[in-house]
Design goal:
The complex is a heterodimer of chains A (415) and B (281).
Chain A (H helix, E strand, L loop, with lengths): L5 E2 L2 E5 L5 H16 L5 H13 L5 E3 L1 H7 L2 E5 L11 H13 L4 E6 L3 H12 L4 E6 H6 L1 H9 L3 E5 L6 H15 L3 E3 L10 H9 L1 H14 L5 E5 L4 H7 L9 E9 L16 H4 L1 E5 L1 E6 L24 H8 L3 E7 H15 L5 H12 L7 E5 L8 H9 L20
Helix pairs in contact in A: 2-4, 4-5, 4-9, 5-7, 9-11, 10-11, 14-15
Chain B lengths: L6 H6 L4 E7 L5 H13 L5 E4 L10 H12 L4 H10 L6 E4 L2 H6 L7 H10 L3 E3 L9 H10 L2 E6 L5 H10 L4 E4 L14 H8 L7 E4 L5 H9 L4 E4 L1 H12 L4 H28 L4
Parallel strand pairs in B: 1-2, 1-8, 2-3, 3-4, 4-5, 5-6, 6-7, 7-8
Helix pairs in contact in B: 2-12, 3-11, 6-7, 10-12, 11-12
C-alpha cells in the first residue's frame, strides 16, 4: 500500500472535484483516528464493538460438514454479530469516525440491506440522523431489512434508475454527498470507492481475521490451511483475509457469484453473474480503478446474483490486486450451488446462512479437496433476510438437496 | 466538422461565451444532430457534447435521463465520433464524458487512443467530471501530444493546494461549478459563484460558470459577477426531454432550442454591458 492509496495499478481517487476536499479531510481523519488512535478513537471503537456488537464472535467446529468433507471445517460466526452480519464492524467504525470529525448527518447505500441496517443501527446507537439509498429491486427482495432500517429511525430512499440495485444506489449516494459534503459523511459499505475508503473499511473489518488467527492458535495450535469467504464488493472477504496476507501457507479463496452463467450478453449489457474477480477487466467505477464487469466500450454491465449482497459489477481494488499477484484465489459458484449450500448448512449445522455466505459453502461442496486439512469459512451473515427469496427460488429449481416445500401447499395459500 | 477550432479563441472575442451542453444521441442520433446544430445557430461559442456513460455520478436527474435515452438509442464511443464528424457546426466541440470510456477505447492501454481519435474527428478538448487533477496526468499527456485542451471543474469546496494543482493542468477554460450538488436547472443563482470566481481571479484561462443556469437573467447575473462565459446543460436537455415525451416534431424542438440559446446568449451579453456600466472590466 503506497501513500497515494493505490494497490498495484488499482485504487486511486476518481471522483468529482466537489468531493475531493471531503476525501482529503477523511484521509486525514482516518490516519489520525484509525491508524494513530488519536483521542483514543480505536479504544472506543473496540469497546463499542464488544458491548454493542457482541465481539469477539466464536470460531466454531462444524461437526457434520467436517465429517462429510473429511476435513476440519471451522466457522467464523460473523452471523452472530449484532445485526446478523459482519457489516456492523465497518458501519460502527465509520459512524463513530463521522462523530469524531464533527459531521452532522450520515448517508449510506445498501444492496442486500445488511449494510443499511448496520448503518441505521450504528447511527441510532450514536445518535446521528441517517438516510439510506437502496435500489427499488433490492427493496422488493429485502423487505424485512427495509423495515429494520425504518425501525431504527433511518430514512430509506428508493433508487429507481437503471435496474435498481447496488450499483445505482452507490451512484445516487455519491450524488447526495456531492450536494451535502460539508456536513455529511458517506458510510460506504464495502472496500470499494475512492481512497481512503478501501483501506479504511478493510481496517474496520480486520478484526475478523485478527480473531480468527488468535482463535486458530488457541484451538489448533496452528493456522488454518485455507480461509474461505464469499466476495461481492469484498468487505467480509478482506476482513477475513487481511491478517493472513503475509502467511503464505494459508490459502485465501474468494468465492464470487457465478449467477446463472458466466457468459455475457453484450447487446443487452447484461452479465448474468457477479464474478468480477474471475472474469472482469480493469476499469474505473465509483471512484476507483479496479476489475469491472463492462462491455468492450467501457459501459458498466448489469450484474446478477440470487443474492442481492453480491450483485455488483465492481470489486474492491485491493482484492483485484491480490488476485493479480496470485495471493488470493478467485472462484465462483452458481445460483443453484449457493442455494444448495444454504439448505445444507441449515439442515446439517443448524445455521441458516445469508445467501451471500452460502456461496462459500457451495464452493466447499464442489471442491472439498482444495481447502487442505483445516479450513475456516467466514459465515458473513445470517439468512433471515433471504427467506422469501429462498422459498421462491427453491420452488422453481430442481436442487440437488432434499428440500420439502410441501408445507406451503397445505397451509391454505398464505404464501 | 472541420478541423479543431481553437478553444481559447472562442473566449477571446470581446463578449462573454455561451457554452451549451447536450448529450450526443439524445433522444436519437438524427434528432440530436439537428439539436446540436440549432444551438450553434442560436449563438453557441463552444459546445460541450456529452458522450453518455452508464454511471454518470456527477449528473442530476435531467442529464441522467438524457444519457439513458441516448444509450437506449444506441450511442457508443464509435457512433459518437461519427456524430462529431457529421455535425455541420464551426464552433469548438468539447467532449464531456467519464474516464472509463476514455480509458477503455482502442487496443492500447490508457487514454491515448481515445484522444487521438477525438483529435482526428475534430474535438477540441475534454471535460471529465470523475477525473480530479490527482489522476489526470495520463490524459493531460495525451492531450498535449495531440494539442487538445483539458478543462477542469473548480467546485465551491476547492481551496488552497487543490487550486494550485488544477491551475497547472488546466487549459482551454476553467469550468466554475456555481454551487454544490449535481447538474440540474435551478430557479436561483448561488452566491457561491462570486466566491468561487474571486478565488481564481488571477488565473489566465477564461472562466466559464455552470450548474443551475436556466434563464437569460441568470446568465446576465453570472456574467455581471465576472464570468467569461456561461455553461448551460439541464435547461436545454429539458427542452429535448419535453419534445421527446410530447412527440413534438424534431424541427419544432430544434426551433425551441435555438430560441433558448439566443435568450441565454443575449442574457450573457446584457450582463457584460451592465458590468461595463458598473465600471468593471
Amino acid at each position: 500500500m503506497s501513500e497515494t492509496g493505490k494497490f498495484g495499478q488499482y485504487g486511486g481517487q476518481y471522483v468529482p472535484e466537489a468531493l475531493m476536499p471531503a476525501i482529503e479531510e477523511l484521509t486525514d481523519a482516518y490516519e489520525r483516528y484509525v491508524l494513530d488512535n488519536e483521542d483514543g478513537f480505536m479504544d472506543e471503537f473496540r469497546e463499542r464493538l464488544r458491548d454493542f456488537g457482541g465481539r469477539p464472535t466464536p470460531l466454531q467446529y462444524a461437526d457434520q460438514l467436517s465429517e462429510r468433507y473429511d476435513t476440519d471445517v471451522y466457522l467464523k460466526r460473523e452471523d452472530l454479530l449484532h445485526g446478523g452480519a459482519h457489516k456492523l464492524n465497518n458501519a460502527l467504525g465509520q459512524v463513530l469516525l463521522a462523530k469524531y470529525m464533527g459531521k452532522e448527518r450520515i448517508i449510506a447505500e445498501t444492496g442486500a440491506g445488511q449494510h443499511g441496517t448496520a448503518t441505521a443501527m450504528a447511527a441510532a446507537h450514536l445518535d446521528m440522523p441517517c438516510e439510506i439509498y437502496m435500489g427499488r429491486t433490492d427493496i422488493n427482495r429485502q423487505r424485512p431489512n427495509v423495515f429494520r432500517m425504518r425501525l431504527n429511525g433511518a430514512e430509506v430512499n428508493p433508487v429507481t434508475v437503471g435496474r435498481g440495485t447496488l450499483k445505482e444506489a452507490i451512484s445516487e449516494t455519491m450524488r447526495d454527498w456531492a450536494t451535502t459534503v460539508e456536513t455529511t459523511h458517506y458510510v460506504i459499505g464495502s472496500i470499494v470507492g475512492p481512497d481512503p475508503f478501501p483501506r479504511m473499511v478493510r481496517d474496520f473489518h480486520r478484526v475478523i481475521s485478527d480473531e480468527m488467527r488468535e482463535q486458530s492458535r488457541e484451538r489448533l495450535g496452528r493456522l488454518p490451511d485455507s480461509v474461505l469467504a464469499c466476495a461481492g464488493g469484498g468487505s467480509n472477504t478482506m476482513g477475513a483475509f487481511a491478517e493472513f496476507v503475509e502467511d503464505d501457507a494459508v490459502d485465501l479463496i474468494a468465492v464470487e457469484a457465478g449467477g446463472s452463467s458466466l457468459a455475457v450478453d453484450e447487446d443487452e449489457g447484461v452479465a448474468p453473474n457477479s464474478a468480477t474477480l474471475s472474469t472482469g477487466d480493469e476499469g474505473v467505477l465509483h471512484g476507483a480503478r479496479t476489475k469491472l464487469l463492462q462491455d468492450s466500450d467501457g459501459q458498466i454491465m448489469e450484474s446478477h446474483s440470487v443474492s442481492a449482497g453480491l450483485d455488483y459489477a465492481g470489486v474492491g481494488p485491493e482484492l483485484a490486486h491480490l488476485v493479480d499477484t496470485g495471493r488470493v484465489t478467485p472462484a465462483n459458484v452458481d445460483d443453484d450451488a449457493a442455494l444448495e449450500g444454504f439448505h445444507r448448512l441449515s439442515q446439517e449445522e443448524g445455521i441458516i446462512p445469508a445467501l451471500e455466505t452460502a456461496h462459500a459453502f457451495g464452493y466447499l461442496h464442489e471442491n472439498p479437496d482444495a481447502v487442505g486439512d483445516v479450513t475456516v469459512i467466514n459465515v458473513s451473515g445470517r439468512g433471515d433476510k433471504d427467506l422469501e427469496t429462498v422459498i421462491e427460488e427453491t420452488e422453481k429449481r430442481d436442487l440437488d438437496v432434499d428440500v420439502d416445500m410441501s408445507v406451503f401447499d397445505t397451509a391454505g395459500g398464505a404464501m | 466538422m472541420a478541423n479543431n477550432p481553437d478553444l481559447g479563441a472562442a473566449f477571446e472575442r470581446d463578449e462573454p461565451a455561451f457554452v451549451p451542453y447536450l448529450a450526443a444521441g439524445d433522444p436519437d442520433y438524427d434528432a440530436s444532430i439537428e439539436y446540436v446544430e440549432a444551438l450553434a445557430r442560436g449563438g453557441a461559442d463552444v459546445i460541450e457534447l456529452g458522450l453518455p456513460f452508464s454511471e454518470p455520478i456527477a449528473e442530476g436527474k435531467t442529464i441522467q435521463d438524457a444519457i439513458v435515452r441516448a444509450l437506449d438509442a444506441g450511442m457508443t464511443p464509435d457512433r459518437y465520433f461519427e456524430f462529431v464528424e457529421e455535425l455541420a457546426v464551426d464552433v469548438p466541440l468539447v467532449c464531456m464524458t467519464y474516464y472509463n470510456l476514455i480509458y477503455q477505447y482502442g487496443d492500447e492501454e490508457g487514454p491515448r487512443p481515445f484522444v487521438e481519435k477525438a483529435a482526428d474527428v475534430g474535438i477540441t478538448g475534454f471535460v471529465v467530471p470523475d477525473l480530479p487533477a490527482e489522476e489526470a496526468d495520463p490524459l493531460r499527456t495525451a492531450c498535449d501530444e495531440f494539442d487538445l485542451d483539458l478543462v477542469f471543474i473548480v467546485a465551491p469546496t476547492t481551496r488552497g493546494e487543490r487550486l494550485d494543482r488544477m491551475r497547472e493542468q488546466v487549459s482551454g477554460y476553467v469550468y466554475v461549478q456555481a454551487r454544490l450538488g449535481t447538474t440540474g436547472a435551478r430557479d436561483d443563482v448561488s452566491d457561491q459563484t462570486d466566491e468561487s470566481l474571486a478565488r481564481i481571479d488571477d488565473w489566465d484561462v477564461p472562466k466559464a460558470v455552470g450548474f443551475g443556469i436556466k434563464e437569460g437573467d441568470h446568465a446576465a447575473r453570472i456574467v455581471r459577477a465576472g464570468a467569461d462565459g456561461i455553461i448551460v446543460g439541464s435547461a436545454l436537455v429539458d427542452i429535448v426531454a419535453d419534445g421527446y415525451e410530447d412527440d413534438t416534431p424534431v424541427a419544432e424542438v430544434a426551433n425551441r432550442l435555438e430560441a433558448k440559446a439566443r435568450e441565454l446568449k443575449q442574457g450573457a451579453l446584457r450582463g457584460a454591458e451592465q458590468r461595463a456600466e458598473a465600471g468593471g472590466d
